[in-house]
Amino acid sequence: MLSKFDLLRCPVCRADLTLVERTLRCPQRHSFDLARAGYVNLLTGHGAAPAEGGDDARQLQRRDAFLAKGHFDRVTDAIRAVLPPGGGAILDAGCGTAYHLQRLATGDHPCAGIDVSKEACAFAAKRYPKSGFAVADIWRDWPVRDACADLVLSIFAPRNFVEAARVLRPGGILAVAYPGPDHLIELRREFDLIDQGEAKTETYAAGIAAATAAPRHQRLRAAARLDAPGIANVILMGPNARHARLEALPPEATRDVSFDIELLIARKPA
Ligand SMILES: C[S@@+](CC[C@H](N)C(=O)[O-])C[C@H]1O[C@@H](n2cnc3c(N)ncnc32)[C@H](O)[C@@H]1O
Ligand SMILES: [Zn+2]
């Protein structure tokens, strides 16, 4: 029977997993129980402790509130434009709340997200019970089958192009989004935020070309006036969660903010 975990494989022996009641099992009897929230933890053995950098529950709430306003929807709109009309199987690497995954999910195609944060997987699994979510580290082997995905997403997340290329079907699409030089530039200056904006496109494009095929580059620019909760959300949902000093911001404050998102899209040779 089809299961929402069909894209996943055993992290120990790499065999396919089958869902039996609330446990995923491989033929070698490695087994992984679903957590109550409906996700599965596939971090194993040595290094089973999550890598640093996973989002916590507060960041997820901030991210959820911010993304719900649609400020970053142009990323998935641009990706949708290159997908075949019927859609396909999607793997979201570093899925967070899985907002973007869900915007692209279509019909009965299996969709899955991996994230090193248990909180993120729990959040996404509760919000989107039709998709499968697994705790896994992007920097290690992904517990994902070879050549199973029509689309791999990497949106504002750590990038492992070699694993992304492995799990893509021939002809499948890799979409990688990351902040451009002017992303949140006004807030970066005012609140002394971590600078995420150095030019990375050449490095990423070379990495993607080596793993799959040369990507096409788009720069998605926009601006919005954010109110005080919006400003707090966009700062605290990301890597500045522990850095930013927002106390000085009055509740009636607004700021005009630039969004500058770089998008690389490559198609794995058929
Ligand atoms: C900035 S958030 C982006 C989330 C989502 N892609 C989005 O755009 O809304 C980065 C995500 O990557 C996850 N992450 C960080 N390091 C990771 C790692 N080594 N392996 C898997 N996920 C990781 C975090 O837990 C977080 O959910
Ligand atoms: Zn196994």
Kindly report the oligomeric state of this protein. Answer: single chain
The percent range for strand residues is 25-35%
Q: Profile the largest sheet.
A: 8 strands, mixed
Silhouette: globular
Return the string of H and E elements: EEEEHHEHEHEEHEHHEHE
- Residue share in helices? 25-40%
Poorly predicted sequence stretches spanning 5 or more consecutive residues: none
Using the 3D structure, state the CATH architecture.
3-Layer(aba) Sandwich
**Overall radius of gyration:** 19 Å
Give the terminus-to-terminus CA distance: 28 Å
Strand order of the largest sheet: 4-7-6-5-8-9-11-10
Average of the residue pLDDT scores: 93
How many E-type strands? 11
CATH topology: Rossmann fold
Overall tally of structural domains:
1
What class, by secondary structure content? alpha/beta
Q: What ligand molecules are bound, each kind once?
A: S-adenosylmethionine, zinc ion
Report on the structure:
- By secondary structure, this protein is an alpha/beta fold.
- The chain has a single domain (46-267), classed as Vaccinia Virus protein VP39 (Rossmann fold).
- It is 26% helix and 26% strand.
- It has 8 helices and 11 strands.
- The protein has helices at 57-67, 73-80, 99-104, 118-127, 161-167, 185-191, 201-211, 228-236, and strands at residues 18-20, 23-25, 31-33, 40-41, 90-93, 111-115, 132-135, 149-155, 168-179, 216-227, 254-267.
- The two termini are 28 Å apart.
- The mean pLDDT is 93.
- The structure holds S-adenosylmethionine and zinc ion (ZN).
- S-adenosylmethionine (SAM) binds at residues 51, 53-55, 63, 67, 94-97, 99-100, 115-117, 120, 137-139, 155-158, 238.
- Residues 51, 53-55, 63, 67, 94-97, 99-100, 115-117, 120, 137-139, 155-158, 238 line the site of S-adenosylmethionine (SAM).
